[in-house]
Design brief:
The chain contains 6 helices and 12 strands. By secondary structure, it is of the alpha+beta class. The chain folds into 2 domains: 189 residues, tt1808, chain A (Alpha-Beta Complex), CATH 3.90.1570.10; 67 residues. A hairpin with an 8-residue loop joins strand 7 and strand 8.
């Protein structure tokens, strides 16, 4: 029996280097991808509580809804295990890849997808910043990820990093007008109330709870407008009914007066004779 083209080590699972991947058959590639874990050990990716979860989920969902609504093909996910060829796996808080389909995925395998990540956002909620502002800055630049942002929640600050053409290291993204611009997303990033907020021009991207609140308000306005229209229609119908009744009474009165007038005329004629 032929030896497998690539063996996934359970203790250090990695996607095959690119040169190995290119020699593999489609069936071999599928088998390798199927054996790559879709999770991270707790010691490498410990849970960080609601202070980490809430801004991550709200930012991810706001991006996902925005790009869906404008019809732009941007895949947005969070906590998705990512495999670059021959590299140790990692799991970004938020990631984005442009010009790809937004179907559900268990992991992002660069050689399978045919493309690496375009943007990573990490959310720092406490403790040592070495990983987010040191290790990741070097590693993500080496992997060729065009943009990297760190949301420092305790400090209420965003650190932005961008690869310039032919550069091997990140350059700092300087905030403009209180916002840090992402060329990948075409959006501005800022901090509002301990949350990471995105702006499209001067318009903020609404969080899902804000969208739900806005829709609830619109529904309430529509219900109120409907009820008002029904009341007005009912009042108009009532007025029309009253007008019709008055017209009928006036018609009867006029007929009665005409009859009395005819009777008087007849009596006058009789008296003249």
């Amino acid at each position: 029996m032929a030896e497998p083209a690539w063996f996934v080590d359970p203790a250090d699972p990695r996607a095959p280097p690119r040169e190995v991947w290119e020699r593999m058959t489609p069936e071999e590639r599928d088998r390798v991808v199927a054996t790559l874990p879709a999770d991270m050990p707790l010691d490498l990716h410990p849970p960080e509580g609601d202070g980490h979860r809430k801004p991550k989920e709200r930012a991810r969902d706001a991006l996902d809804e925005f790009f869906r609504s404008i019809g732009r093909r941007v895949y947005v996910s969070s906590e998705l295990v990512t495999y670059y060829p021959g590299e140790p796996r990692f799991c970004p808080d938020i990631l984005a890849v442009t010009d790809v389909e937004s179907h559900d995925r268990q992991s992002w395998v660069v050689t399978k997808e045919g493309k690496g990540l375009d943007l990573v956002i990490e959310i720092h909620v406490g403790g040592d910043k070495t990983k987010d502002l040191g290790t990741n800055v070097t590693r993500y630049a080496r992997l060729g990820i065009p943009e990297y942002f760190v949301f420092d929640r305790p400090q209420g600050r965003i650190h932005g990093f961008r690869l310039t053409p032919a550069a091997s290291a990140y350059e700092r993204v300087v905030p403009q007008g209180g916002r840090t611009h992402s060329e990948v997303l075409g959006l501005g990033l800022t901090v509002e109330g301990k949350m990471l907020r995105f702006y499209h021009g001067t318009a903020p991207l609404l969080f899902l709870d804000e969208l739900v609140g806005k829709l609830d308000g619109m529904v309430a306005e529509l219900v109120e407008a409907r009820d008002l229209a029904l009341r007005q229609a009912e009042e108009e119908s009532k007025r029309a009914e009253e007008e019709s009744k008055r017209a009928e009474e006036e018609s009867k009165r006029a007929a009665r007066l005409a009859s009395e007038n005819e009777a008087l005329r007849a009596e006058l004629e009789r008296l003249r004779r």
